[in-house]
UniProtKB/TrEMBL annotation:
Organism whose genome encodes this protein: Rhodococcus olei
Stated family: Belongs to the zinc-containing alcohol dehydrogenase family.
PANTHER family: ALCOHOL DEHYDROGENASE 1-RELATED (PTHR42940), VACUOLAR PROTEIN SORTING-ASSOCIATED PROTEIN 11 (PTHR42940:SF8)
Protein name (Swiss-Prot/TrEMBL): alcohol dehydrogenase
Pfam short name (any one): ADH_N
Cofactor(s) needed by this chain: Zn(2+)
Amino acid sequence: MDVPGTMTGWRVRRPGPMRSRPLAQFTMPVPDPGPDELLVRVRVCGVCRTDLHVAEGDLQPHRPSVVPGHEVVGEVVAWGSRVGDGFGLGDRVGIGWLRRTCGRCRYCLRGAENLCPDSRYTGWDVDGGYAQYAVVPAAFAHRLPDGYLDEELAPLLCAGIIGFRALQCAAVPDGGRLGIYGFGGSAHLAAQVALARGAEVHVMTRGDRARRLAVELGVASVQGPSDPPPVPLDSAILFAPVGTLVPPALAALDRGGTLAVAGIHLTDVPRLNYERHLFQERTLRSVTANTRGDAREFLDFAAQHRLLVTANAYTLDEADRALTDLKEGRVVGAAVLIAG
């Protein structure tokens, strides 16, 4: 398969508010795959809130002028000398957030590779998918379920996977009551998984369009972001990166309930009151990245249960506008960049 010598895309020129235009378009050589890597022609790349945190500097830069993007759907066009027989030219594959782990530390050896101290991440440590080509270690490339368009698959590769892990961390009991705070790309997928598993879902979010989407998906109730739900919750997930929502979410939990914070970045959490927020064995926990096992389990679920993916399409040339729209709350569901 012919591969051009150069490609276009976007880099984080200087992290800062979106109004300062931190992203810059570029032309550069197409990357060469390493010995254990695939070269992927990007078809679609999802626009994740983590990309916004990288662009605005909420996450400390790991690589100067990095290419953001870690929800990549593309086709294999070349590979390195140590890649086995598992991939062929034209195969559709996914590139997610988790790019590489050491495989030797005590976390990797116990199945918690998401906690590996030497983990590396697409679009943060290495260049990602806001470009026409990207590389990925073959061991971390994802097989994708049939029956979905490329633009539907892209949000599954981070928003879907992280939402799925957040559900696991929230320990939703069978038939339990789940509260979801914020209703964007990840939340609207996690809600569908929870509903398919028999949970009663209550959504706390801003924005009429997001609330309408929640109702269309079949949730039991919808209210404002800090409003109490109509019933005590067994579990809750905070998707919005807003620390002031932690106290009302904890207060909404029933005895023994768990609140999982799903974002990689959160504004400061106000002071908590022990008796009101944590007593009676309420649990507050974070969600850190994902394992490849999480990804496989979620993508298998998506193959068996057709998920409704609300994807707002932008061209690759509109990446800065897509991130600005995400920041300003103008994206309902997920946003994706169509690269080709």
